[in-house]
Each structure stands twice: as structure tokens, then as C-alpha cells.
Amino acid sequence: MKKIVQCMLFLGLLTALSACGDKVTPEDRLSDYIGHWNDGKFTEMYDDYLTKESIDAYSEKDFAERQEQLQKDLAIENLKVTYTKPEKGTKWDKEQPAEFPITVKMDTAAGPVEFEKTAKLLYEERGKKKNWYVDWDPSYIFPDLGPEDEIGISRKKAARGEILDRNGNPMAANGTGYNIGIVPEKLTDESKKAEIASLLGTTVEAIDAKLGQKWVKPDLFVPIGKVSKDDGERIEKLVAIPGVGAQETPMRVYPYGPAAAHLTGYIGSISAEQLEKLKDKGYTETDQVGRRGLESILEDRLHGKDGISIYVKKAGENAETVTIAEKAPEDGETIRLTIDAAIQKAAYDAMKGEPGTAASVAPASGEVLALVSSPAYNPNEFITGVSGERYKALEEDENTPLFNRFAQSYAPGSALKPITAAIGMEAGTLNPAEGLTINGKTWQKDSSWGAYRVSRLHDEAPNPVDLNKALIYSDNIYFARQALAMGKDAFTAGLAKFGFGEEIPLAVMDLKPSQISNDGKIGSEGQLADTSFGQGQMLVNILHLASMYEPFLTDGTMYKPVLLLDEEEPQPWKEQILSADTASTIRTILRNVVLDGFAQSANLDDIPIAGKTGTAELKSAGETSGKENGYFVSYNQDNPAFILAMMVEGVEDNGGSGYVAGMAADVYRSVAP
């Protein structure tokens, strides 16, 4: 009897549960289905919510895997599916479909997509289970999508922004070069492949791989490499080979070549590592990115956003294509620099490939007019894919053309002396009219200095030696004695006013700051003497050196260097560095240095150049002589539109700093109106 009662209770429970199952509404089912949809749980949707007819028509791969892949391929995010609730108390007829208006919204790579659809649910029996199921077809994915249709995505390349100089001259532009290719049936001499490979910096195996692609036909042009337009000699050699041709193709070009190479840098194919970092910004494996210089630094501004179109390609021959979403390309920003390309090129050419660097600034604004590193590479060569052999040759070149010298710092030598003079005058310890009696080529304060002595090159300077003579004859002893008179604290404080020990405030370029010494201090009288004429442990960046001469022309203000023309109005970096009287005195003497001193190579008849030469001796311990870097910092006295600082390495056998002054004079001749 007890068992009979238990069975009856169990049957009653089943009946009750069955009755509860019958009470599940199509709205409940749709709500659960949409919840899975919004969560991307497509397998659950397929297994538990589709009608039998839908499952028979579409495999799980067609349903679940396809939608999962589309979410990745179309970069679908923020999917939100909602439905319109039925009126309260709606009665559902199990013999009729239950229909609900739904709205589908999502963000895609081509922009937002939104559409409305009527969802239809049917009441079906599955074995012993009865419930409501979604009558699904591909139009739930996109409204115009049919069973045989395909979803496609196309991209329209955005143009990379160009880099222009202050006058609108292109320094990195979107131009054209040449695709070099082979028409297989016309290449009758297979042995020529080795010559082609050598000219293109590739291998015969790489050429064969491209000729062996599936799409290749005997009469088709097969691209195998690229050559820039300025490489005329190589193009002529290539197209002279039967079967080889050249077709014009879009290409990044650098009109100033090596003259601006370390400034502009170049672009190259994106690496797998870069793609991983940048894919969220819309980059693809076919993109090019900045590799060096401003092309790399300004990548975010120069790189455009490709246009993207998502479409449905209808089945059937000549069928229409229906656009689902479309985003127009956004070209990269065109960036105008403060650089004057004429000065940039003139300075590079004047250096004649000698290792060194140059910088030019507008003294009234701090605008950077030139940043030169010599020698350099040709960025156009890198655009087409430089060969390993060629790159190795550049790396092993003793003049290091891949090394960016304007980003470094060097001992400034006597080019610092006008700064030392100004600091002494402002400290009240240096009277420019007061002369010192200096005899002989060497000097030391007293025997406490041991073997250390200050040397000067020109002991013919007539006594007494005042500031004018000291700068004309570049007298190390005079400046050492003046530094001792002002003391290390006053001297280092004065150097700090000129920006020593600070980061150079040029936002877009990473330049090595200038230093007084390795620890920023002067530890001895000997070091103080050396530092006064730009030796010891002092190092100066070439752009900073040009900026340090600004106060002589602005009566005390040194501006923050600026490289982008659209930046704010000129911003002072340091103010009230020196008085107008000090500035006037220094200006007069800097002109005399060229008229009466050892910068005669810059003493032009028609351009009154003022400036200071400098020689920094670089010798190892125990050496009596060593390599010398020559400097000349200058400006046109009558029209000081720019200051030019130039340094050339290894001038000891070329006439010293006078050699550099002659190079600077060539710049003034080149850019003279």
C-alpha cells in the first residue's frame, strides 16, 4: 500500500512539472534566447532553442562557428538585442507562430549597425518534451543575408599624412616609385635571375617563390621588388634585361634623401610584434609603420584610419551587393615642421659627408630650422627594402651613417667661451675692458696643481688680454682665470641659467641633455678651469648649443626649441639670463672674432657673419694629442634670422675649427636671398 501511494505521488509530481512546462511562454523562451545571443553563446542557442527545421537546414558550423568567426572578423562589439514585450495578458495559440519585433544593435569595424526584425517562435514537440523554438535563418545575422549569400569586408586604404617643412616643401611625401617585375614567358635566359636578384638585393630563391605563386601565368607581370624613382641607374640596368619591366606604384618618398634622413626617418612593413601591439588601432599585416625619426615618433598622427565596408554578396551570377555598414577612410594628418628645408640641405651638403652634426634655430622664437646628422643613409633606399648585405655595409662604415649625431652630446670646446664670459660679466667678476697679463703657452695657479697646466694655442696674443682679445685668440688661460675668479658655485649657477643639467624641452624628439660634468658638479680647480673652455666632463647637445647663443640676440631670453609649426606661440625656456649691456658686448666681440680672429673662412664680403669657433680635444689618458672636433656657432649680424651651430669630427688635419667656419659660410651663401 505504501509503495502504491509513493508511485501516485511521483506521477502527480510529473504531471505538475509537465503542467508547469506547458506554462513556459514564447516570451520566456525568446528572453532566454536573446540573453544567450547577447552573451555570444551560440552553441547553446543552436542546441536548445532552434526549431527542428532550422537545425535540419543549418549545421552547427553554419550557425555557431560562423557567427563566432564573424564577431572576430568584423570586430563586433557591444552587441545588444532587445525585443518588444507583448501586451499584458496575451494568449498564445500553440498552433500559430508567436511573433516579436526585435532590434539588433552592434558596433563593427565599419561603424554601428542597427536593424529590426520579426522573431518567430513555433511550438514543437521534441520527444516527450514540448516547447517554443526559434524559427531561425541567416537574416537574424544581417537582414539582407540569405542562405547562399556571403558576408564580405573590404578596405580602402587611408593616405599617410605627409611631413612638410615650414614653407610647405615635402620632406616625407606620398609619391610614386616602381614595381620591378618579370613576365615569365619573356625571361628566356634563366641565368639572368642572379643578376636581377643582385640588383634588387634579394635571392634567386625568393624570385622563384614569387614566380611560383598559383595566380601566375606566363604572360602576366609578376612583381618581385621595388625601386625608388631616384634610383635611375638601377632601374635602367633592370629593365635592360629581357623579360624585366617596371610599373609605377604608390610609394613613400623622401625628397631630401640623406640630408634629412635622421630627422624624418622612414617607414617599413609592420612586423608581427608591432601588429600585435597595434591591431586594436586598426592596423593590418599589409600596413607600413614609422621605423625611425619623425615617421616613428609621429606615427599616431601620420597613420590614417582605413575605410571599411561590410557587405552582403548575394548569390547568383551578377547578383547585387548590399552594403551593411561603411566607414570612409580618414587620411593621416599632414604635419608642418618649423624646419627650413633649404637650411637643412645646405648644412648637410656643406659638411661634405664629414662626420658631424649641425642645428639651426630662429633666435626670436626657438623654432628649429635644421637638425642635421652627417653622414647619413638614404631613406628612399629603405622604403624599397634594403638588403642584408647593404645594411651590413652601412653598419660597418667607419663614419657610422646610421648613427644620429644631433641626438647626442659632445664636448663643446671653445664654443662655450661666450657663455663663460656672459656668466662672469653677470656675476660681476669679469670686466670685459680689463686686461690680464698672460705669458707663455701654459699656466697654472700654483704648485698645488701638480702636473696640471692650462694650455693655449696662441701665445702671440698681445698683453694685456681683455675679453675681446681673449675671444679673438680663443685664450684658454684667460677663461680659466676668469672661472677661478668667479668660483665654481657662481659658474655652475650661471650654467644652470643656460639650461645645463635639464632635459631639452623639445617635446617630439629625445635629445641627450647637456651636462656640466658626470655628476653635475665641479670638484676641483682644475676641473673648473677645464670646464670654463668646454672641456673636462662637459658635454653639450648641438641644438642646445645653438639655443645658448639666443640670449646674445634677444637681450637675455632663451626660448624652448619648437619643431612643430602648429605649436603654441614662442615660450621662454630661460629669461633674464643676462643684461642687454652684456648681450651687446658679446655681439660686438663675436663679429670681431670673424673679422680679426681665426674664422677668416667665414669672413664674407657680402654677409657679415658673427660667431665663435671652438676645438674640443679628445685624447685618452697619457696621450699628448688626440682627435679634435671643430665647432662654429654663428649668425648674420645684420639679419640674425637664424643661429647655426655646426660640429665636425676629426678636424685636426683639416685646419681645425676654421675648416668648420668655412662650411658654415657655404650655408650662408646657399640660403642668402
Automatic annotation (TrEMBL):
Its main location: membrane. Residues 357-666 form the Penicillin-binding protein transpeptidase domain. Residues 25-148 form the NTF2-like N-terminal transpeptidase domain. Belongs to the transpeptidase family. It is found in: Membrane. The keyword rRNA processing does not apply. Residues 156-318 form the Penicillin-binding protein dimerisation domain. Residues 1-18 form the signal peptide. This is Penicillin-binding protein. Keywords: Membrane, Signal. It comes from the Bacteria. It comes from Bhargavaea ullalensis. Pfam families: MecA_N, PBP_dimer, Transpeptidase. The lineage of its organism: Bacteria, Bacillati, Bacillota, Bacilli, Bacillales. The keyword Zinc does not apply.
